[in-house]
Design brief:
With 524 residues, this protein is of the alpha/beta class. Helices cover 52% and strands 8% of the residues. The longest helix has 42 residues.
């Protein structure tokens, strides 16, 4: 989300909006256990690491006995240590976070004997009860209630428009207000909806393994879920055909930026020609909503004692998957506007975006309640230089993806990764490597694009006729995995450092998603 070496402003914004408290509040609201005040992400030499023990603890259902929870978390951590290639698939290969169709089968194959029969029964019963509550699609359920909060924020944004205050103090005050609303009305409900999307994906996978749905059926269902990305592609086409004014398009999508939390990453509004140029499909391939479940899914849900039939479950899955992308789209507008307020506040004191990127959001917003007595730039520059020095020190420290003990700091293991392949198609073409701050590459038609990590701000790629996508980071249920499924574009998501560098530095590559293979064709 924020990259391998985020600058202080980006990492502190992500902490404020997601990883300080929002993550645990969202999970608690869904029926998981209450967590103490624990940050989900720690920074080591400026590099973000997820506290996996804290995350695993937060996936235990409320009411699970302490001794059972301790054994489960320790067992999951041991499995992850033995299988580091699952670091981006922990909810599908390590921890069991809901009562899904393959719950007993996975328990027996992954961690048999971890709990005694009584402990297993208690845990299973708690998960079953929580899962039944999660699948509630009524207006009182957590999914629809959270989407209602997001829709309220979207209406507020529309009424407010894009105009920003003029005075420096007002800009900083507006930034603070925007970040507050992004947290309470954006990332908090987003985290709830995202959890529902994981539940839906887990059930879909389990239904395939149990034979209740075919793999091709699920692929067709996923491709038919209409998301905000579908509308983005359609609106790009309408602009090119003269059916939609560019100003209207930019009012809808101009807030997006490839680096969502990065003040140095340009917004779509800053590079409209680049965003709207290139090959655009006549229609976004997603959006068909004609998939229907067969009797097998009904029987499976009855067997599991779940409170809905197959058709209702598919509606739940559509709502969760599309809702997650919409919620992300909405909250990033408040965040993007806050970043613009901070940038304009900096301009008033002669401070550049580059300099602001080295400050934490607290260092900036504290100036609202403790205005500096000296000129702002004189106060900021020593903080910037200190942050730059720390970054230079930290950048020289090489670390693996997983740190289980102090030895992993002194001896860096080369953790293997297992890419997440999307679709079953083949892409062959020239390799183009992009970062989050450059829209200048004009010809991506037929290219296999390499990006280290991606978020909604990279949706412009799908308006450029790319043949395939390779990322270093990302999971099977990540934003780009969903986008590539929707557009039918083959992808290798989360390849890890070694494979990504091999592909990134090649002139061309072949990505065969059906064969789970991505190889260089011409090496630079």
């Amino acid at each position: 989300i924020v990259g391998l070496h985020p600058r202080p402003l980006a990492s502190s914004l992500y902490r404020s909006l997601v990883t300080a408290k929002v993550w645990s509040r969202a999970r608690r609201s869904l029926g998981y256990r209450e967590m103490p005040a624990t940050d989900l992400v720690l920074l080591l030499a400026g590099r973000p690491f997820v506290d996996v023990r804290a995350s695993f603890n937060s996936f235990l259902p409320d009411g699970v006995e302490e001794k059972d929870g301790t054994r489960l978390v320790d067992g999951w951590l041991d499995r992850l240590e033995k299988h580091p290639e699952f670091h981006d698939k922990v909810e599908f290969e390590i921890a069991q976070t809901v009562h899904d169709p393959c719950f007993e089968e996975d328990w027996c194959s992954r961690t048999p004997g971890l709990l005694d029969p009584q402990g297993f029964g208690r845990w299973k019963s708690a998960l079953q009860a929580m899962t039944r509550r999660l699948l509630d699609t009524s207006p009182e359920g957590t999914l629809r209630r959270s989407l209602g909060v997001v829709e309220t924020l979207a209406r507020k944004q529309e009424l407010r428009g894009s105009a920003l205050p003029g005075r420096p103090a007002a800009l900083l005050a507006r930034a603070s207000e925007l970040l507050d609303e992004a947290r309470e009305e954006g990332t908090l409900p987003f985290a709830v909806v995202a959890r529902h999307a994981f539940v839906a994906e887990t059930f879909l996978r389990g239904a395939v393994r149990r034979g209740a749905l075919g793999a091709e059926d699920v692929q067709r269902f996923r491709a038919g879920v209409r998301t905000v990305s579908s509308r983005f592609g359609e609106d790009c086409t309408r602009v090119r055909k003269g059916e939609l004014e560019p100003s209207v398009f930019l009012e809808r999508y101009g807030h997006l930026r490839p680096g969502t939390y990065d003040i140095l990453s340009p917004r779509y509004a800053d590079a409209p020609e680049a965003i709207l140029s290139g090959a655009v499909p006549d229609a976004a391939p997603g959006g068909r909503d004609d998939f229907h479940a067969g009797p097998g899914l009904d029987r499976l849900l009855v067997e599991m004692d779940m409170p809905l039939d197959g058709a209702s479950f598919l509606e739940y899955a559509r709502l969760a998957i599309a809702g997650r992308e919409y919620a992300k789209f909405v909250f990033t507008r408040s965040l993007s506007d806050a970043l613009e307020c901070i940038a304009r506040w900096g301009e008033a004191s002669g401070t550049t975006r580059e300099e602001l990127s080295w400050l934490s959001v607290d260092e900036i917003l504290d100036m609202l309640v403790e205005p500096p007595l000296a000129p702002v730039r004189e106060v900021i520059l020593p903080l910037v230089e200190q942050a730059r020095r720390m970054e230079r020190i930290g950048h020289g420290l090489k670390l693996g993806y997983l740190i289980r003990s102090p030895r992993d700091v002194y001896v860096m293991p080369r953790h293997r990764s297992a890419p997440n392949f999307v679709t079953r198609k083949i892409a062959r073409g020239p390799v183009v490597h992009l970062d989050g701050r450059d829209f200048s590459v004009s010809d991506l038609n037929g290219a296999v694009v390499c990006i280290r990590n991606a978020d909604p701000g990279f949706d412009w790629l799908f308006a450029r006729g790319i043949a395939g996508l390779v990322t270093q980071f990302g999971g099977t249920n990540s934003h780009m995995a969903i986008r590539c499924t929707e557009y039918g574009i083959p992808a290798a998501i989360g390849c890890g450092e070694q494979l990504f560098e091999t592909i990134r530095t090649a002139r061309a590559c072949e990505l065969d998603a059906g064969a789970n293979s991505v190889v260089p064709l011409e090496v630079s």
